[in-house]
Write a structure and sequence with these properties.
This protein is an alpha/beta fold. Helices cover about 50% and strands about 10% of the residues.
């Protein structure tokens, strides 16, 4: 009975979050939000969310803004900006970059999709073609610069959020250097703790961007740039302004200041339609609502899995762990510390090697996914070797396949593996279908900040089939070590889950502290190489993901005594999560 109530609670959380998010992004009926697809000049499909306020009509066209997310994000990441722009009466095209979201690969094609997006925006009869703004975060800013250079007469102003015009470090991505007259009417919103300060503006500390020679060149001054001061002329298209919100590079999406500065600049350069102060913002209610849906979706996995295990169809899987022979005493502490610290210690090393050695290809087309898989597989090998060394001694104490959860104590192990596969497919399959329905009804997904769980397109399904095996191998070894060697000898299910999370996730928390304490202390981000800055931001997602997969693995191991149900659910979930949210670099 309790399992049924958890199902109900989780579905209510998902629905309530989706309904609230839908209403907020529609400004409670004053904005129409459409999921659109259109064709690029080269025939590829591009995807976007189109926000059309009720005031925008063919008889009275409204100003418009193309909003573009950064690398390994998607159109929904820009929802804070899009919601607030649309509330003020501006049409917004929130674009999926090429190779991101539902836009066809490869990454970078057609100026990251920005050129075709701007051309599409100009075909809409409810858009005032003389008042179009470009806004982009990070790589989306580079896309905006390329679109502006390609179509110089088709936009009026630009906001670069955590981005730049071309510098010597980013020239291969943005081959168009900024000048005092290009781009037109430019606002640079560059946060005081932005992790990409060297890449974007050639300064090691983001707060010092005012002294950047590259920025001063764009502003046409030899003196330090004064934040908030408008250089040049809006009427002549040469205006420049620098804003410095107190946040990080990904923090721009959760910053009322960063969003407010963009609003202010477009109010000055595109003109007001609805006179709403920049400080009057509601976007964060959508963020909170989709976070509730995300939490509901995670609860649904446990609730549905637990309920299925109570049915007769899966009765053969119901069994408490048998013959546990975990490490004890000093051995346990050594194993726990190695499990905690080795993955975190090798994070940048292995990702750096993987970025060079495991290049995107037709078979494995997502570069960031490749580097993460490379890191996970090398750590899997290290864990397996250490586990086998320990097992050589532990088997004398009776440790065996049953103790480690890869052999069933009773009945056919093969049948149990088959039931585990069926359980995982049903749990994740139903969870996925529920998201598809929610997305179709409310035009939202499950997310909080840079954590995003999206429906997959057909391309994503094909890509997922390529990555599912390495993720499954990792989570099988992960579960065997965690529950065979490091399982707490006493305590309740709840206490064992908490202890397991500490062992698997504390190392990533320490890694993030080592990265970000220097940054918030006014020093450069604590990465070993500036080329790996991206993986510091990726690590922000690694921490909650390892918490989630540890809870899943521990819960289903304690219910079945086997590593397979949890490992299979984790492999399906993580493959879905990563593949749907990552950039696809190579067409397949």
């Amino acid at each position: 009975m309790r399992g049924k109530w958890f199902i109900v609670i989780s579905v209510v959380m998902i629905l309530l979050g989706a309904i609230v998010a839908n209403q907020v992004q529609k400004d409670f009926g004053r904005v129409d939000v459409r999921d659109v697809r259109f064709q690029a000049q080269d025939g590829r499909t591009l995807s976007a969310l189109l926000y059309v306020p009720k005031n925008a009509t063919p008889e009275k066209p409204a100003p418009a803004i193309q909003a573009i997310h950064g690398y390994i994000n998607s159109r929904e990441t820009q929802s804070g900006f899009a919601i607030e722009f649309a509330r003020r009466g501006w049409v917004v095209l929130s674009l999926d970059q090429s190779g991101h979201g539902y836009s066809s690969p490869p990454v970078g094609a057609g100026g990251y999709g920005a050129i075709d997006g701007l051309a599409y925006l100009k075909t809409l009869d409810f858009v005032d073609k003389t008042k179009i703004g470009l806004e982009g975060h990070s790589m989306g800013g580079w896309a905006s610069v390329i679109a502006a250079a390609t179509m110089p007469n088709d936009y009026r102003s630009m906001v670069l959020e955590g981005s730049s015009t071309g510098t010597k470090y980013s020239s291969k991505y943005v081959p168009i250097p900024g000048t005092p007259t290009f781009p037109k009417n430019l606002a640079v919103v560059f946060s005081t703790y932005d992790e990409f300060s060297i890449l974007m503006w050639e300064v090691p500390i983001a707060r010092d961007v005012v002294h950047s020679d590259a920025l001063k060149k764009v502003f046409g001054t030899e003196d330090p740039v004064e934040p908030g001061r408008i250089y040049g002329s809006i009427d002549e298209g040469t205006a420049r302004v620098l804003y410095q919100p107190e946040t990080t590079h990904p923090g721009d999406h959760l910053s009322c200041s960063a969003i407010g500065y963009a609003i202010e600049w477009f109010q000055k350069t595109l003109g007001e339609v609805n006179a709403i102060p920049a400080s009057d913002q509601i976007w964060y209610w959508k963020e909170i609502a989709t976070a509730v849906s995300l939490l509901g979706a995670l609860l649904f996995i446990f609730a549905l899995g637990g309920l299925l295990l109570q049915t007769g169809a899966f009765a053969a899987l119901r069994e408490a762990p048998q013959n546990p022979k975990p490490a004890t005493g000093v051995t346990w502490w050594i194993a726990a510390l190695l499990t905690m610290l080795v993955p975190a210690a090798t994070y940048f090393i292995f990702n750096g090697i993987g970025n060079l050695a495991f290049k995107s290809s037709w078979l494995f087309p997502q570069q960031v996914t490749n580097t993460l898989v490379f890191w996970l597989i090398l750590n899997m090998i290290i864990s397996l070797v250490l586990f086998l060394i320990w097992h050589a001694f532990n088997r004398k104490k009776g440790g065996n396949g049953v103790s480690y959860g890869f052999i069933g104590a009773k009945g056919s192990t093969g049948r149990k593996i088959g039931l585990s596969i069926l359980l995982a497919v049903i749990v994740i399959g139903v969870s996925y279908l529920l998201l598809v329905v929610i997305s179709a009804l409310f035009t939202v997904d499950y997310r909080f900040w840079i954590l995003q769980l999206k429906p997959m397109g057909w391309l994503h399904f094909k890509v997922a089939l390529r990555y599912i095996i390495p993720f499954l191998l990792f989570y099988l070894v992960f579960a065997m070590v965690l529950h065979g060697q490091l399982r707490a000898a006493a305590g309740t299910l709840k206490s064992r889950m908490i202890k397991a999370v500490i062992v698997t996730s504390l190392g990533y928390l320490l890694l993030l502290l080592m990265l970000y304490i220097p940054l918030f202390a006014g020093k450069p981000l604590g990465v070993p190489d500036v080329q790996l800055t991206l993986y510091a931001i990726v690590a922000i997602q690694v921490l909650p993901l390892f918490i989630i997969v540890t809870f899943v693995s521990t819960y289903f191991y304690e219910k079945t005594g086997l590593i397979y149900p949890g490992a299979l659910i984790n492999a399906l979930f993580i493959t879905w999560y990563i593949v749907a949210s990552q950039a696809t670099h190579v067409p397949i």
